[in-house]
């Protein structure tokens, strides 16, 4: 369990900024020149991208806990 905690800590501490816009969204936003709108759109895309990963992670964690809980209590 300590190894998993260390991996999660590394993922949360060492992040790099990413641009998640598609090519068409980027072209439209760059032509308008409003950087605040572009940043807001990029943040929204990243937020929407994270949700499926969180749901899958919680599901895998739940299955993992149930599997090993049944192994400990025969």
Provide structural commentary.
- There is one protein chain.
- It is built from three helices and no strands.
- The protein has one domain.
- The model has no long low-confidence stretch (mean pLDDT 78).
- With 74 residues, the protein is an all-alpha fold.
Helix content: over 70%
Mean pLDDT: 78
Number of helices: 3
What string, H for helix and E for strand, traces the elements in order? HHH
For the record, give the distance between the C-alpha atoms at the N and C termini, rounded to a whole number. Answer: 22 Å
Q: Cα-atom Rg, whole angstroms? A: 19 Å
- Ranges with pLDDT <50 over ≥5 residues? none
Blueprint (SSEs and pairs):
Blueprint: H1 2-13, H2 23-32, H3 35-72
Summarize the structure.
The chain is an all-alpha fold and 74 residues long.
Question: What keyword list fits this structure?
Answer:
74 residues; mainly alpha; 81% helix
